[in-house]
Amino acid sequence: MLDPDDTVVLYEELAFQDVMPVRWDCQPPEPAAAVGLAERNLLVMQAWDALEDHAVLEKADENAPLAAEIQRLDRKMTLLLALVGQLLALNRPRPAPVPLRFNARGALWRPLEAAPQAGAQGILEIYLHECIAQPLRLRGRITAVAATGEVKVHFDPLDDALCAVITKITFRRHRRQIAGRHAPNRAS
Question: 74-92 burial, b for 16+ CB within 10 Å, e for fewer?
């Protein structure tokens, strides 16, 4: 995996990199179930986008008297989502987190269990946040398995709305990392 200070690229596009629970499912869904997969994935990504966006709370603006109340309600909803996610996770434990890089075109990770074979088709499940019980489920084909155990998958084409959300979150994370590197050191 790349150094976190480097620009992370996969399939010649900016990629998101983090440590997350990931599972490869070699049983693709039936065609009827695959239809609803795009809608569920979009909802999962929109929920994650909302959680990522809320991660940076700002002081309440005195011109917006309801801002403090909205932030308080937002924290309560986040806590409620975390509790529900924990309860649901008891029924279906998540895999152990591993370093992961992904974008709308594919993913790269090192599974803790036996790596799938190159050419295998299936679904990569990415558990984006502990508050979101349902994983992002992306269909694809394994394009390479490195001697180091890293697995590279190329996703089947995603719908435009899902691609847009993945790209938006990836770019926002990259922008924040760059801003964090260029911020003056506050310890001095």
Answer: eeeebeebeeebeeeeeee
pLDDT single digits (tens) 95-149: 999 999 999 999 999 999 888 999 999 999 999 988 788 899 999 999 999 999 9
Considering the domain boundaries, does residue 183 fall inside one? no
> Which residues face 107 on adjacent strands?
102, 153
This prediction's pTM: 0.76
Alpha-carbon distances, residue 135 vs 100, 129, 139, 169, 176 (angstroms): 14, 9, 13, 16, 24
Domain that holds residue 171: 10-56+64-178
CATH number at residue 158: 2.40.10.220
Return the ∠ at Cα 15 (arms to 10 and 21), rounded to 5°.
100
| Low-confidence residues of the chain: pLDDT under 70 | 1-6, 29, 31-34, 53-64, 79, 82, 85-86, 88-90, 182-188
Inter-axis angle of helices 160-182 and 31-54, to 10 degrees? 30
Q: Which two structure tokens, joined as six digits, stand for 22? A: 């990931």
